[in-house]
Write a structure and sequence with these properties.
single chain, about 180 residues, alpha+beta, Rossmann fold, about 20% strand, binds adenosine-5'-triphosphate, binds magnesium ion, Chromosome partition protein Smc
């Protein structure tokens, strides 16, 4: 599974549609303070199913919608699309016939989030399960936030164990067990 393209539209400071092609190898994002580097990483985390506003540095999820600037009005929705190359067939079962996986998440003021997976309407759970099984979810230790290293060093053993379990790719199993216990 390889991320090949990220598109932002109305997400935080990216008010106009912005396409980012993610090439093979290492990608660096550089720019002055406040230019939107962290917003880019948050967009990636968000389209992968992040549901905690605090992880988006907001108090409510609608805070990810472009909130206006001196010369631009606020927008009513934000949308992020992620294109994934699956020619290596490393995506979980269910995607075995798909060379490419497209995920779109859109949030509209007062209407919450909606997801599409390869053009079909899906639930947040379907998206988070896709990444949980691929052990690269929105909460994945593979995505390291500013300040997260020191949090990990200072974490209690239980929280540190969760990070290791996520890295080991078993958090999807935990999610399924939790759901089975609720039934
Ligand atoms: P640093 O180098 O300091 O880490 P950065 O490049 O990571 O900076 P970000 O934190 O990604 O910068 O971007 C911050 C900018 O995004 C601020 O100018 C802030 O006003 C803007 N911003 C955040 N949320 C919104 C929003 N909902 N609407 C409009 N602008 C927003
Ligand atoms: Mg930053």
């Amino acid at each position: 599974m390889r991320f090949t393209k990220l598109r932002l539209n109305g997400f935080k400071s990216f008010v106009d549609p912005t396409d980012l092609v993610i090439a093979d190898g290492l990608t660096g994002v550089v720019g002055p303070n406040g230019c939107g580097k962290s917003n880019l990483l948050e967009a990636l985390r968000w389209v992968m199913g992040e549901n905690r506003p605090t992880a988006m540095r907001g108090s409510g999820m609608e805070d990810v919608i472009f909130g206006g600037a001196a010369t631009r009005n606020a927008r009513n929705f934000a949308e992020v699309s992620l294109q994934i190359d699956n020619t290596d067939r490393l995506a979980p079962a269910g995607f075995n016939d798909e060379d490419q996986i497209d995920i779109i998440r859109r949030i509209t003021r007062d209407a919450g989030s909606a997801y599409k997976l390869n053009g079909k309407d899906v639930r947040a759970r379907d998206v988070s399960m896709l990444f949980a099984d691929a052990s690269t979810g929105a909460h994945s230790p593979a995505l390291v936030r500013q300040g997260q290293i020191s949090e990990l060093i200072n974490a209690r053993p239980k929280a540190r164990r969760r990070v290791l379990e996520e890295a080991a790719g078993i958090s999807g199993l935990y999610q399924r067990r939790h759901e089975a216990e609720l039934k």
